[in-house]
Amino acid sequence: MSxxxxxxxxxxxxxxxxxxxxxxVPMVSVGGAAKVFAETNDxxxxxxxxxxxxxxxxxxxAYDLIAQVRDQYVEDGKNVVDIKMxxxxxxxxxxxxxxxxxxxxxxxxxNVLSTLLNTDENSTTYVVKEGxxxxxxxxxxxxxxxxxxxQNPGLNLETIHPGDEITVKDVASLINVIVEYEVESEIIVPxxxxxxxxxxxxxxxxxxxxxxxxxxxxxITEKVVKVNGIIEKTEEVASEMIVEPVNRVVVxxxxxxxxxxxxxxxxxxxxxYEEPVEESSEYYEEEESYYEEEESSYYEEETTxxxxxxxxxxxxxxxxxQSVVDYAMQFIxxxxxxxxxxxxxxCDCSGFVWRIFNDCGYGISRWPDDEFPxxxxxxxxxxxxxxxGSHYAIYIGNGMEISxxxxxxxxxxxxxxxxxxxxxxGIRVIG
Length: 431
Known about the structure:
Layout: H1 3-6, H2 8-38, E1 40-48, E2 51-56, H3 59-71, E3 79-86, E4 89-97, H4 109-116, E5 119-127, H5 134-141, H6 145-151, E6 165-173, E7 176-189, E8 193-202, E9 208-211, E10 216-227, E11 230-243, E12 248-255, H7 282-307, H8 321-329, E13 341-342, E14 346-347, H9 349-359, E15 374-375, E16 385-388, E17 391-397, E18 400-404, E19 411-415, E20 425-427
Parallel strand pairs: 8-12
Antiparallel strand pairs: 1-2, 1-4, 3-7, 5-6, 7-10, 9-12, 10-11, 13-14, 15-20, 16-17, 16-20, 17-18, 18-19
Helix pairs in contact: 3-4
């Protein structure tokens, strides 16, 4: 028996093992190469919009930086409803094979935060000119009065003078953080004045206060939106009355006097008495006649001249703010004069409001903020004073106001939030 036949089974086994080893070696080589090729390094890219700001080693570092940017503009102790960032700030995982060039990893977190909070700022100086008001500057520069005040905290905008320097900054932030708050506050509710007619009382007698008015209180809930810490929008969303106001009741007479009932009183309240003039001679009669004729001609000439000029109705008050508005509206088109208080020859914004209300019998100051209750924009009614930084106007209804704007425009009507200025509050003079 030959060797092949004797060891046939063993030979086949060896051949099979060899074939298996031959097939296994390439597989191991390929698997090893694949394993080497599959090894990567993972990074976390911090992006603002479509722009990559930094590559970080840890994902938690990226989210911590986003939280720090947000916290720069979120106020402690306030009810935050929503926070947004524009452009959106995102974190994206990036895997880079080890055999390729690796990105530069930022290790200085303070430097990345500084980049995220970076603003492009160009500063210029505006010099106040004769006749300028903050209202004028706001319109010229396209900035709200609130923004001007924030950029110039050491400057009193109530008393600017020619030559004062105002810093004007054109600021563009890399990221805008928009925070929406829900703010609850308690405000005073002014009382109304109602008039009760007494048919047994003369109309020219002094009014009698029957019931003293009492102010009420209510809580209001407002949605306040701030962009990078500056108020962008305020909207009242709910209110609840705590204490109802009590109307002030004034008794007025309606009884008209007969002509013989009128008694003329002097400044001290006594009846006037006029001694009869004795006509002692014909000479005086002629002289008196002469002067009467001359005086009559003089007044005729003066009256003719007066009718050619603009005439205005005297201020009247009918118990509502509308009468104040009606009086103010007749001065539209008259000039603006810085510091002036004349409704015909010229006034500025505070002088206009001051003169209108004083003409109607209300002794307000030129800056009446602390003298009367404040109301929100949603509560405004005709006759309320509106306050925008250093500008004052009178609300006339339907989102419109009247004010002395500037030297170019004079006294005119205009929408609320004119020149994109920030509304501070309304001032209610007439209860």
